Amino acid sequence: MSDDPTHSDPDKYKVAFENDRVRVLEYLDHPGDQTTEHAHPDSVMYTLSSFRRRLYGADGDSRDVEIEAGTTGWLPAQIHAGHNIGNSDTHVIFVELKQPGVASHRPGPLGPALA
Amino acid sequence: MSDDPTHSDPDKYKVAFENDRVRVLEYLDHPGDQTTEHAHPDSVMYTLSSFRRRLYGADGDSRDVEIEAGTTGWLPAQIHAGHNIGNSDTHVIFVELKQPGVASHRPGPLGPALA
């Protein structure tokens, strides 16, 4: 079942800040780690490490992503699970937007849209 | 005159990402640097360095802040100028929210509200 990532993977997702507009999550895992399927709202991502991951969508599709530290991306609302298939930790800040936007009604890519 | 920080201080504020929901700015300065007065919308801040700054409000008030690297804060919409009064660079990611919220109508503190 899809769920809040702080419930599906509480060892990896920590709430860094929350108010009525946003919730900020800090994600940290290690090579080989996998997450349980979970849901993200429209979010900004900022990468604190360079990493390589395989993302699995709810429809059985998958996508490999390799992202450098210091990258800002947009994660459109989606359900997915992730697998750290690289040799480095994945360390990411997610700024979740609580106000839905028009953009969230469009189908988006699996994983982030990078700047 | 108050202004967009990418106009008032284009050498320090860079646009890292923008869509219809958010604009993400990367701020970088060095010890002794000062900014021209500028306006921020409601924003999430994430600090990439530890730093010490003196903030000057539009009303002539000021506040010194000392913040550790890896801190998430909420910057309520405000007009201010800043002065790096420490011995380290100030390096911060700002996620500016384009949708106004109820919170932005409340008077907020000068500088960030830290988690």
Structure description:
The structure is a homodimer of 115-residue chains. With 115 residues, the first copy, chain A, is mainly β. Chain A has a single domain (5-101), classed as Jelly Rolls (Sandwich), CATH 2.60.120. Helices cover 3% and strands 49% of the residues of chain A. Chain A is built from one helix and ten strands; from the N terminus they run H-E-E-E-E-E-E-E-E-E-E. Chain A has one helix at residues 5-8, and strands spanning 13-18, 22-29, 38-40, 43-47, 51-57, 62-67, 72-75, 78-84, 90-97, 113-114. A six-stranded antiparallel β-sheet of chain A has the order 1-2-9-4-7-10, with no helix packed on it. In chain A, strand 5 and strand 6 form a beta hairpin. The longest helix of chain A has 4 residues, at 5-8. Chain A starts with a helix and ends with a strand. The relative contact order of chain A is 0.28. The A-B interface holds A 16-17, 19-22, 24, 26, 42, 44, 46, 72-74, 93, 95, 97, 99, 101-103, 115 and B 16-17, 19-22, 24, 26, 42, 44, 46, 72-74, 93, 95, 97, 99, 101-103, 115.
